[in-house]
Amino acid sequence: MFHYQADLLHCENLSVEAVARQVGTPFYCYSAEAIRTRFREYTTVFEPDNALICYAVKANSNPSVLGLLAEMGSGADVVSAGELHSALAAGIPASKIVFSGVGKTVSEMNFALERGIFQFNVESEPELERLNQLALSVGKPARVSIRVNPDIDARTHRKITTGKSENKFGIPASRAIEIYEQARQFKGIETQGISMHIGSQLTRLRPFEQAFNALAALTGQLRAAGHDIRVLDIGGGLGIDYGDGHSPPPLERYARLARQILDPLGCRLIIEPGRSLLGTAGILVTEIQYVKQGQERTFLIVDAGMNHLLRPALYDAWHDILPVRKTQGKTLEYDVVGPICETGDSFATKRRLSPMTQGDLLAVMNTGAYGAVMGSFYNSHPLAPEVLIDQGEFRIVRKRIGLAQMIAMDS
Ligand code: LLP
Q1: Domain count of the chain?
Q2: Nearest 5 degrees, angle CA 52-CA 57-CA 58?
Q3: C-alpha of residue 42 to centroid of ligand 1, in Å
Q4: Same domain, 225 and 213
Q5: Ligand 1 center to residue 184 CA distance, Å?
Q6: Residue minimizing CA distance to atom 8 of ligand 1
Q7: What is this structure's pTM?
Q8: Main-chain phi, psi angles of 271, to 5 degrees
Q9: Which atom of ligand 1 is the closest one to the Cα of 279?
Q10: Fewer CB within 10 Å: C terminus or N terminus of the chain?
Q11: Containing structural domain, residue 159
Q12: Residue 208 shares a structural domain with residue 354
């Protein structure tokens, strides 16, 4: 969806440079077609009759993105009242929404109970107790899957590993039977399944295979103890190719593995993809403010910073960087850095690019997921606006917050 026509980077059939001229930089630019294509791939490899794709809203919660996925029949995996509200407002029915997260508050639970969401993924005993009490007072039982922590190493970055015993997520597999027994005593709780999510940006199948096998084994044990397990939520986690030499297996192989292990159990599958739906569908467009010659490095100082895209600073993440207009000449080595007063505010070090000058535009690739949503006002810079390109037209789907608005928030 992002490609060059002549020397100009295009999103679908629109020139990114032309969009930049109208929107100003920095901004996020998403391709609707890329999102639709990826969603269709998911519905092809998983049987829509017994699998529900619940898009992980945390990856990109822009209402237009959610609306587009809602139209395609997506459900949602939400982690806050805000995400639940956005998903519902975008037209995703409550019957397709699961609520994950370790810290659900009373008001968040009440909101979700009132709306009658498909499932709460419960992550601890005290959470189960609280949910039971609230469900009893609302007079509607809460449908629940217990999130189990299988103590499996996802072999991804440690900060996005969630299925190891030292992580805060889920209940140890060894205590699962006990908590399902406890849930059975709670009149406000109706357990319907098990959920698991071992981490994000997984590029190998082996950890998934271990997790799916653990799910299958636990389903057997719970059923033997008389629990009705009808739903298996396998989380998200399939990675994307960031160009860093770690490419994930094709979606088709991931799905085949899941189905081989889990289909025989006859459960409804829930899949919660975030990054693999949105990641490659977006770019961050930024303008070079200065080309600065340092002692050892040449810095391209751009107008986007870690406040707009945190991933490189937080995870040392690699993002390909492309010139929006290709230039002629031998490539040179650059450090691409932002304006924020932190050394960690760097998008790339020693990156080879064709010769760049002040005013040139760069595209930070594969930033459709965990880009805009992790933005902040750090150093009192406004957030980046977001643009969605669909069928030859672009729409600003999040406005630039002006200085006056930013200042008006505080007193
Ligand atoms: N389900 C649960 C319960 C999750 O915690 C997550 C992601 C997902 C699904 C979606 O995972 P995905 O398909 O996107 O891998 N900010 C980090 C990623 C954090 C992921 C958190 N949980 C990053 O920029 O890499």
Answers
A1: 2
A2: 135
A3: 17
A4: yes
A5: 30
A6: 236
A7: 0.97
A8: -120, 135
A9: 14
A10: C
A11: 32-277
A12: no
